[in-house]
Automatic annotation (TrEMBL), chain A:
Chain residue ranges for the region called Disordered: 191-216, 234-254
An individual GO BP term: protein folding
Name of the protein: Cns1/TTC4 wheel domain-containing protein
InterPro entries, sorted: Csn1/TTC4_wheel (IPR044059), TPR-like_helical_dom_sf (IPR011990), TPR_rpt (IPR019734)
Similarity remark: Belongs to the TTC4 family.
Cross-referenced Gene3D superfamilies: Tetratricopeptide repeat domain (1.25.40.10)
Residues annotated as domain Cns1/TTC4 wheel: 280-384
Domain of life of the organism encoding this protein: Eukaryota
SUPFAM superfamilies found in the cross-reference section: TPR-like
A Gene Ontology molecular function term of the record: Hsp70 protein binding
Residue spans of biased composition, Basic and acidic residues class: 191-207, 234-245
Pfam families in UniProt: Wheel
Phylogenetic lineage: Eukaryota, Metazoa, Chordata, Craniata, Vertebrata
Automatic annotation (TrEMBL), chain B:
Protein family membership: Belongs to the HGH1 family.
PANTHER family associated with the record: PROTEIN HGH1 HOMOLOG (PTHR13387:SF9)
Pfam families on file: DUF383, DUF384
Highest taxon above the source species: Eukaryota
Protein name: Protein HGH1 homolog
SUPFAM superfamilies: ARM repeat (SSF48371)
Gene3D superfamilies for this protein: Leucine-rich Repeat Variant
Length: 399, 377
């Protein structure tokens, strides 16, 4: 940049100065190649302010900034300056920086109440745009405390409450504001929206309650039906883990826990299908059932075995047309199969009459349902594996 | 009554400066006078007594003030006393000033008096203008009414009937129906206010009066106000509706709990139906009401209602709703709601209604001669 000389008033000095240009190129001129870059560095011609002002790179800018934040000014002036700075950042959508500026302004603790209310309100706005609803609400509240008629703070407070889904709170803010300015359109709109959402939330709560009640009734009916049939449900580990309050076998808590177990275990069943026993419109139960094939370490899962269906009904289909791929010896044919259920208490096995219905079998004295899923062991009659598997076990065969 | 000299003497005792025991006896006597019609009529001709009574409401003794308010309540129950009270005393100014005071223990009595005074159009207009002149305005009254616990010792429920009475004036309705403000919206939740039949009835009366102005119907039924659910909720019951029916209802009427109670008071139920009826006056109104699918509510209500007058109003409403462009939903209602035997009943009821209306008319004339909100001594 051309260094201005302190010219005297005389024409001679001026003439001399002008003469110089004709002969000397002045120092520090912009070069043709990088003049645009240089231009950008001149504070007056800058299009955007740099992110941080390094006194080395931008000495002039640093100088100007220090003038702004000169410590000789009063707290009010400093706070005002910081407010303006915050506002500028806000306009550029640099909300985090705006928050910093406003905070600094508030720290000055100046005595101008209106200014402080504005600082709080503006900071609330910055927080709002950053998504910090709670901070924004706190600031709006603080602003209102300082200046109860500060309508911008009230509008902001209502908006924050809405975002936080506190509709009754939002309504309160709106009503306060409307008391001051009854015809304020924005507040009326906010109020209408808050009211609408509040009522929708109330409806959702009612709906959920109705649904929960319905589910509870269904559960209770199901449990009653199972109990009525004399089918025993086994409590499994999760409820035992619950420790001290697993005392209640009978009574409501037991019932709902048993059902909860049903649900829990239905979901946590090995097949992870979420299948659970259910009752159809005719009041018939359908169970998820597991068939275990210990010989080949395989299982079959039937998601809905009607209690009135017989085992043979299912086996005939499962092993009817095609035998399973793991049946290498092709011996798992329906007429060869033997089914057993295990009494978990004593470890005894009981053979199942395949022509009987599932209900019939489940009602057996020693039969119980574990994890909400009846399971049966499938062996091939007379096979070496079967002999080996059954040896050493107490087996109750069919008569 | 009193002779002129007796009256003069009594009057002299009715001043703030009089000895408390004498003052007390004098006010007691006046209160006794107001307890019957002749006494009231007598006092009508004695504006000085009225003035004195009103002045004594400023008395430091609570017992005296109490008696004065009692007396004014009795007087205000008599229509012929309205103009003298308003014109000869500064009653209205005192009433409004104290109404705004959250600590004033006699605020409920003030509301009763104002409610009485606003019953008939002429004095009602005076009350309304006094509100404006005292720079209070209807919005302050609505604000106080809608602020829970504004006055710790007074419930202010009688502001309900006051508002209802005021809305017989178009200028009052104009204020309540102001689109640029949020006034009527504040009143709506009170159609379900369980704690006070007076408050509830006052609000429903206000809404009904406001619905006489057809021009505002579309706005009232729009989201900006959404008056419909607030009129239907008191008529809706705990009966379980199918999920499909629920989803079609306005949000506030969906999935109502098992303990939902309907409006207890048959007069209020009738007013609600009348208000709904008014809203069907315009085609737009009818269309909106049909779109919002309120049939399940009216259907269940019709099954539940026992009072013949209310049933009749309900059926008239349903008829209007059906009577327009017939649609699938409406035909169902026709079948379910009004089978042949009910048609017969309707004809019977119509005849009975004519009879009843005659009886009602006679009773009404009788009632107007008695004191409405009077506290007998």
């Amino acid at each position: 940049m051309a260094a201005p000389t302190q010219g005297e008033d005389s024409d001679d000095a001026m003439d001399e100065f002008m003469e110089k240009f004709k002969t000397q190129k002045y120092k520090n001129a912009f070069s043709e190649s990088n003049w645009e870059e240089e231009f950008e560095k001149v504070p007056m011609f800058m299009k955007t302010a740099p992110e941080s002002i390094d006194p080395e790179k931008h000495p002039d800018l640093a100088c100007i900034q220090s003038i702004i934040h000169d410590d000789d000014r009063t707290p009010e002036e400093k706070a005002r300056g910081l407010k303006d700075e915050g506002n500028d950042y806000f306009k550029e959508k640099k909300y985090k920086k705006a928050v910093v500026s406003y905070t600094e302004g508030l720290k000055k603790n100046c005595t101008d109440i209106e200014l402080n209310a504005i600082l709080y309100t503006n900071r609330a706005a910055a927080h709002f745009h950053l998504g910090n609803m709670r901070s924004a609400l706190n600031d709006a509240t603080a602003a209102k405390k300082l200046k109860p008629d500060h309508i911008k703070a009230i509008i902001r407070g209502a908006q924050c409450s809405m975002e936080l889904h506190n509709y009754p709170g939002a309504l309160q803010w709106c009503d306060e504001g409307l008391r001051l300015l009854p015809t304020e359109k924005k507040l009326q709109e906010l109020r209408a929206t808050a009211d609408k959402q509040k009522r929708e939330a109330e409806r959702d709560a009612r709906k959920a309650k109705v649904k929960a009640k319905k589910q509870q009734n269904e559960k209770e009916t199901l449990l009653a039906a199972i109990k009525e049939r004399g089918i025993k449900l086994l409590k499994t580990e999760p409820s035992q883990r619950r420790g001290s309050d697993s005392e209640d076998d009978d009574g409501d808590r037991g019932a709902s826990r048993a059902l909860a177990d049903l649900e829990l275990d239905g979901i946590s069943s090995q097949e992870a299908t979420g299948a659970c026993v259910y009752m159809d419109e005719q009041g018939v139960l359908h169970w998820p059932v597991l068939f275990l094939y210990p010989e080949h370490s395989q299982t079959d899962f039937i998601s809905a075995f009607c209690e009135n269906s017989s085992f043979m009904d299912h086996l005939a289909v499962m092993f009817g047309e095609e035998l399973p791929p793991w049946d290498s010896e092709r011996k798992y044919q329906p007429q060869n199969l033997q089914l057993f259920f295990e009494d978990p208490e004593k470890g005894n096995l009981y053979q199942v009459d395949l022509e009987k219905s599932l209900l019939n079998v489940l009602q057996h004295q020693r039969c119980s349902v574990k994890a909400g899923t009846p399971s049966f062991i499938v062996l091939v009659s007379g096979s070496p594996f079967s002999k080996q598997f059954l040896s050493g076990k107490k087996v109750q065969r069919l008569k | 009554m009193l002779s002129d000299s007796e009256a003069k003497e009594l009057l002299s005792f009715l001043t703030l400066e009089t000895r408390p025991d004498v003052k007390g006896q004098a006010t007691e006597y006046i209160l006794g006078l107001t307890g019957n019609r002749d006494g009231c009529r007598y006092l009508r001709s004695k504006p000085d007594f009225l003035k004195a009574l009103v002045t004594l409401t400023r008395d430091p003794s609570i017992a005296i003030v109490k008696d004065c308010y009692h007396a004014v309540i009795n007087l205000s129950a008599d229509e012929t006393l309205h103009q003298p009270l308003i014109k000869e005393t500064d009653l209205l100014a005192i009433l409004f000033k104290n109404l705004l005071d959250p600590e004033y223990v006699f605020a409920d009595r003030i509301c009763t008096i104002l409610s009485n005074l606003s019953r008939h159009e002429r004095t009602c207009r005076d009350v309304f203008h006094a509100l404006q002149e005292q720079k209070i305005g209807l919005d302050k009254v609505v604000e106080i009414f809608c602020t829970e616990g504004f006055n710790k010792t007074a419930s202010l429920h009688y502001l309900g009937p006051l508002l209802s009475n005021l809305t017989q004036l178009p200028e009052a309705r104009h204020f309540i129906l102001d689109k640029d403000r949020c006034v009527i919206q504040r009143l709506l939740p009170y159609t379900q206010y369980e704690e006070s039949t007076t408050r509830r009835g006052g609000v429903v009366g206000t809404l009904r009066n406001c619905c006489f102005d057809y021009a505002h119907h579309e706005w009232l039924l729009s989201d900006a106000v959404d008056i419909l659910p607030y009129l239907l909720l008191p008529l809706a019951g705990p009966e379980e509706l199918s999920e499909e029916e629920n989803e079609g209802l306005p949000v506030d009427l969906q999935y109502l709990p098992e303990d939902k109670k309907r409006e207890d008071d048959p007069d209020i139920r009738k007013m609600l139906l009348e208000t709904l009826m008014l809203l069907t006056a315009t085609k737009v109104g009818r269309q909106i009401m049909n779109k919002k699918n309120v049939y399940p509510i009216m259907r269940e209500f019709h099954k539940w209602e026992k009072d013949p007058h209310v049933i009749s109003t309900c059926e008239k409403l349903v008829q209007v709703l059906i009577g327009d462009e017939p649609e699938a939903g409406m035909e169902n209602l026709m079948e379910v709601e009004i089978p042949n035997d009910v048609e017969e009943k309707l004809k019977e009821l119509d005849a009975k209604e004519q009879e009843q209306m005659e009886k009602d008319k006679q009773e009404c004339e009788k009632k107007q001669n008695e004191s409405p909100e009077a506290l007998e001594r």
